[in-house]
Amino acid sequence: MTVPVATHPACLDHDAGPGHPERAARLRAVLRALADEPAAAIREAAAAGRAALEAVHPAAYLDEVEALARSGGGVLDPDTSVVPASWPAVLGAAGAALAAVDGALAGGSAFAAVRPPGHHALADRAMGFCVVNNVVVAARHAQRAGAARVLVVDWDVHHGNGTQALVERDGSIRFVSLHQWPWYPGTGAAGERGVGNVFNVPRPPGLPPERYVADLWEAVVAATAGWRPDFVLLSAGYDSMQGDPLGGFTLEPGHYAEWVERLRAHLPGVPVAGVLEGGYEPGRLAEGVRATVRALAG
Length: 298
Hints:
About 40% of the residues lie in helices and about 15% in strands. It is α/β, with parallel strands linked by helices and about 300 residues long. It has a single domain (about 5-295), classed as Histone deacetylase domain (Arginase, Chain A). The protein has an 8-stranded parallel sheet with strand order 2-1-5-10-9-6-7-8, sandwiched between helices. Strands 3-4 form a two-stranded antiparallel ribbon. The longest helix is centred in the first third of the chain and has 22 residues, at about 85-105.
């Protein structure tokens, strides 16, 4: 099986600033690694339209970001800036996430290789390198396509606070997050449960990787007990890998593949799409994405 990998060329043009860890080299490394990967079929996605974004973000916020980018760029939050090329990149990243949903609905699995990432973005606020919450935009798209129940599994080393805030009052989406604690952005305590649809797994750095694998899987099993999703989205961040400069977890590429394989066995027939989040050592990031795509290919 070949996995469609959706991307958009504008994603390479976003510039977060000199020396910023969220740089185009990340995505270039991923695309190079997948270009000769038999399990991957790289496809250019259409940019997202405003309607898909406005299903998650207020129009006034999107207008503000677009206007700032078009006027020459500026700072949205201490970690998040835009330049004129950033708005097309935001639309391209969201469009690739939508295309990944469509690809998984059609063929069982897909992946979106994108930047900027999205899981810190709140409804009306950019945060932590993120402008638009790509995975929630994707979840709403899946629901419009008939997948009423969506499970989001976030293995980025940072808590997906934006994703949680956007879904924690909506029982049709369940959110599972393994993340370093205490660490940026300071959210994601185990006691944060939403309407019973939030399953946070805060863990300290430096544990054996098998512990992280087991603990996230335990939360996935709990989230799906008596509740079978119609679609699974992976907030696929690889800053949880050993050696990433922005995290202290110890995972290796094979551990992401193991999670994907377990998900496919646990939820047979349920489409799975990954959406790229963090991962700030380009070579390691590429290894993690390749392992994930191979596992998605079965």
